[in-house]
Amino acid sequence: MGGVVARLAIRLAPDLPVDAIVSIATPHQLPPANLEFDMERLYQKVNTPAAIDPILISICGGVADTQIISDTCALPDFVGPDNGFTVFSSGVPAAWTNVEHQAIVWCDQVRWRIARILLDMSAATTRDEKLSSAKKWLREAPTLSITERHQVVETLPPVANENVTCIVRLRNPTPTLVAEPPLSLLSCDSSMICEQIAASAQVIPYPRDTRLPFPLPGEGIRNEESAFAISVYHADKDKTIAIASDEQLEILATGAHLQIRGTQGSWIGGGL
User: Fold this and answer.
1) What angle do CA 27, 28, 32 make, to 5 degrees?
2) How far apart are CA 206 and CA 100, in angstroms?
3) What is the pTM for the complete model shown?
């Protein structure tokens, strides 16, 4: 309920210099037990739109949280995409697991991202920058680096298709490297003269021991159980694709993919 208390404080003292509220396992929509009218009136107050609200970010534990109804953790409808968002821990990159109501406070895969969000927000100067910081660490795909100083270069095997996806794993990943992978894709000629090319990336689970449940109940996943699916369009058949990095890496698979575009976005499918 701490998130509701924070939102109520803003309603009672709108001049407080608060830029953002990050709530954890907070039932924003309904109280866990609505036993009296005073509680109903409190929720009506905090869920009435105000002229200016702080950025609201709600992190939910999902079905493992048995103290609240998981759907009530979502922010009310008046909080649009420019004012905040809701994310479940099962959708947080490199967490991918539901978290119990109390455990979400000390869940390492979640708490270090919250700490990083707050640090980045403190350095940001505009509302949009603060919101972008939260999206970057909680729900957006990682951004591949743009640099010419990478030390390790691995050449991909040839693929008879213009649309290429490779699965790459860092050998010694840290939480920051998982969120900001030091990887870039290159197009190289036969003399290994290369130029950087645009590519997109997604963090995906990479279970190390397929005999065990994944994620482990109560544990989630570790940094080394993450990999990157990097997709690129490469039409130059006379050149090869290479991956450059400052970290030791392992190419797990390479293959063609098919991109299907629709009115609501696009899907990528294929076999590696």
Assistant:
1) 35
2) 23
3) 0.81
